Amino acid sequence: MSAHSSPQKWTEFLKSSYKDEIANLAEEYPDVRSLSISFFDIEQFDPELADELLNLPDEVLRDSNQALLDIGDTKGVDFSKAYLRVRDLASHVQIRSIRSHHIGKMIAVEGLIRKATEVRPKITRAVFHCPYEHETVVMQGEKFVEPYECNDANCSRKKGPFALSREKSTFLDAQKIRIQESPEGLRGGEQPQTLDVLVVDDLAGITAPGDRIIITGVLRSYQRVNYNTKTTFFDIVLDGLSIDVEDKEFEDIVLASEDIEMIKTLAADTGIYEKIIRSIAPSIYGYSEVKEAISLQLMSGVSKKLPDGSRIRGDIHMLLIGDPGIAKSQLLRYTVKIAPRGIYTSGKSSTSAGLTAAAVKDEFGDGRWTLEAGALVLADKGIAGVDEMDKMKPDDRASLHEAMEQQTISIAKAGIMATLQSRCSLLGAANPKYGRFDQYDNIAKQINMPPTLLSRFDLIFILTDKPTIERDTQISNHILKAHYAGELSMQQEHIPNSGITSKQIEHAMKVIQPEIEPELMRKYIAYAKRNIYPLMSDDAREKIINFYLGLRKQGEDPNSPVPVTARQLEALVRLAESSARIRLSNEVNVDDIERVIRIVTTSLEQVMMDPETGMLDADIISVGTSKSQRDKIHILRDIIKELQHAHDGVAPYEDVIVHAEEQGINREKVEDVLSKLKNSGEIYEPKNGYVKISQ
Fold it and tell me: What pTM does this model have?
């Protein structure tokens, strides 16, 4: 029993500390039914009362609710449906650290919502009628309980049967949510643990899967039943009292004053860009341009909310396409590891539901449909690394379109209509269609991905594995030095009296030692994304416009392809803002624009350069067919039409090739285009050696 708490003490506390809040509640009641109380205020008022609240929450909260009722009576308001919501507990308990001694205590737990049921009414006070209409009231807990006998002493049908009176019973809105540990707080290979939470009344329905929350509540335990047999094991459920949704980015990353000093010192260094590049996957040799682009992606641009309610994304999407064995997956894993919030998944083993969100019917929702968040929702405000994107099924890839551009995931399944947030950067990796790049073939043809998806990436890098003595020597030296450092470390650890000193290991490890430690790097990124919101200077704006207009000018000639679209301009802005964030500057200057132009030009030349004309063509990515190829298709269709008129409705295959060669298209190209037209169903072979245009 509580020895210190009483309704009078709570009345004294509420009147002294929450007078204005109670007045506001009285005005807005019953539309608003919650009064938020900070645990720090209770502690300052009476430490013993605060201690009792943690250890005997049920008794103490009963006193506090009685005090609220008494205060309501003095104001002429019935606060019978009002709640005291205690928040800001001094310490949080990790889900994996919950133990039996926490049962019955008030605790605060943080995590992200993995699943949520629909909001449904839950009976709390059940009124039953016997055959003679006598009333019996039974208070309900976790399981529905019917009365044992009628309350009326003179009733001749004491044992029932009883009928539930829904009109006289009391119902509350209720929802079950399942929260799991944040992935970024886990060590490698750990499985995130989950906790079920029950929330009622005005707390139900205010959160969605993917939200990061701090929930305060009382831990309850219920005996597990297997095949109608009670076991000695108990399941735990948190009875939710208050929910705080984390709005700030990376609240779980605590920055001490000395960390901020180190971050500011690093940012002041003129070589900060090179340092960050050397800190990204140092065990992988080279790829400085790709690593520079990854550093910009980690910082990301500024997302903007416009007055009309629309949103412009600040997150940068990047795709690495390359030959096997050139460390694409390693780059992905390292990036996800140093990002303050990151999720890694493989396209080969991911479905569209696993990537976005799923409607699931299981025992968690008592047989009802529940919404379960996928990888892109869990990576909200972070980075999602998706490997093997080329191995994904086309249907699963299609689910990425909305997640990448609108950064939301809309669900319309099993009667559930919901929109979840997926404000994350996507770093994808894929192999060419035939396993390895053919340097003599068109790159766009070798990327086994639809143009609609490719056009959503801000940067696409083609990584080829070309043997050269000089580069191969450097790579082999780097790899062997890394292995040697690992061998020294393992020998010192496992072989007693090996004679290997820490100094030797330290010297060998220098090759693969990141310039900035991963932990400090995570803090650096978190600090920049929390505090830096750069503005573009007039000079920088002018330079970016001139670059964009210079590229677009190539497309003014009706016979020239469209070199770039407005999507590339938006990518330039995002990357420039990110570049300013790296040096913790609130202004985007000309240097940032020059850096970004260099990176973007490299990416464009690799992917959008038409090998036939040597000109940039945005259609290679956005449509999948270059202008020069479209022109050839038109010429060939006209040739086939002419030959059809001359040869009884069919065109001889060899004649088509001869006529095309006369117009300057070589035989190989003609065969390639005809093959494409056949595959798309635009032409067909009515008989061997002849082609015809489909009607």
Answer: 0.74
